[in-house]
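Severity: low
Component: inverse-folding endpoint
Summary: output formatting inconsistent between runs
Steps to reproduce: submit the following structure tokens with default settings.
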């Protein structure tokens, strides 16, 4: 009571103190998040530096160079600006058209062949529990660990005129085949070599997916009397659609960038019959028989990267919708 007799109302200090504590906790939480964000950037900084040095900068330089004419001898700063002349040249160049079609042919056929062969091999090793499954798995995967240069040299020697394959055909009284000298056959031979080398790698992807399949679903299919073919087609394949999407993306990207094997086996010949975008870009820029135009070669590389980017983007979008 005050002297006037009125009751004295004392304010409760707890709500103000509670608000202050809440504000301090919010500031501490915000500071921790900021520090955690900074630490995250520090963790990814090495990867960003490597990405910038070896991917972002070369791609940016290639895009810049595609709008210039440069022979590699003049200073880059002195390279004359040509606008879209290199792109117009590419779309009117018959060799570029052939290289693009051969690249698409190689990518599509080798990807389909590798994935079909890899899936069948993986299912056979996983489903039938073969006695020597581990040895067979290592044998099928072994070509994938070999250098593409070594593989190209080995197959070039095997398929060369008068080589071991021709000798075997001659012993069987079969006419020798110009495996690497026929313009209509050489690309199919290269597709076979690539399929032989990389089917085992895709097989490992499928095997990893099959090992992780739920056992109750497989056992239920067994109890229903599902045959091995029906099991492969109707049970296992649908459950591995995400593995298939990943294998498809990686095989298409790798197929579109093929260079080493073709360069070693044929160099893009004969008469550009086995030329792909990668080998043609190298021929334009560095071959002693080519024009030596690094600007035009960069244009071919940029077109190839743009096609891969578009395919990868739509492939990932479709994968998210499945």
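Observed output (run 2 of 3):
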């Amino acid at each position: 009571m005050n002297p006037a007799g009125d009751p004295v109302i004392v304010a409760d200090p707890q709500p103000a103190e509670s608000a202050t504590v809440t504000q301090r906790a919010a500031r501490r939480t915000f500071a921790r998040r900021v520090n955690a964000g900074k630490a995250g950037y520090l963790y990814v900084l090495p990867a960003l530096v490597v990405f910038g040095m070896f991917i972002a900068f070369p791609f940016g330089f290639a895009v810049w160079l595609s709008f210039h004419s440069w022979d590699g001898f003049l200073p880059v700063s002195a390279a004359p600006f040509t606008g879209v002349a290199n792109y117009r040249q590419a779309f009117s160049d018959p060799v570029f058209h052939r290289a693009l079609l051969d690249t698409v042919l190689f990518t599509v056929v080798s990807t389909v062949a590798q994935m079909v062969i890899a899936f069948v091999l993986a299912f056979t090793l996983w489903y039938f529990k073969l006695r020597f499954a581990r040895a067979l798995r290592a044998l099928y995967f072994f070509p994938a660990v070999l250098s593409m240069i070594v593989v190209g040299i080995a197959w070039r020697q095997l398929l060369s005129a008068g080589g071991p394959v021709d000798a075997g055909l001659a012993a069987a009284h079969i006419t020798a085949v110009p495996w690497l000298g026929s313009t209509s056959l050489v690309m199919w031979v290269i597709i076979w070599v690539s399929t032989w080398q990389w089917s085992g790698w895709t097989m490992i992807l499928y095997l990893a997916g099959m090992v992780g399949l739920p056992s109750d679903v497989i056992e239920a299919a067994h109890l229903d009397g599902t045959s091995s073919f029906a099991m492969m087609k109707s049970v296992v394949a649908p459950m591995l659609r995400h593995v298939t999407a990943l294998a498809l993306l990686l095989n298409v990207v790798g197929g579109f960038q093929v260079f080493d094997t073709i360069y070693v086996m044929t160099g893009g010949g004969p008469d550009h019959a086995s030329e792909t975008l990668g080998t043609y870009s190298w021929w334009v820029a560095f071959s002693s028989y080519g024009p030596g135009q690094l600007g035009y070669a960069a244009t071919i590389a940029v077109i190839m990267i743009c096609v891969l980017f578009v395919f990868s983007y739509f492939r990932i979008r479709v994968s998210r919708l499945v």
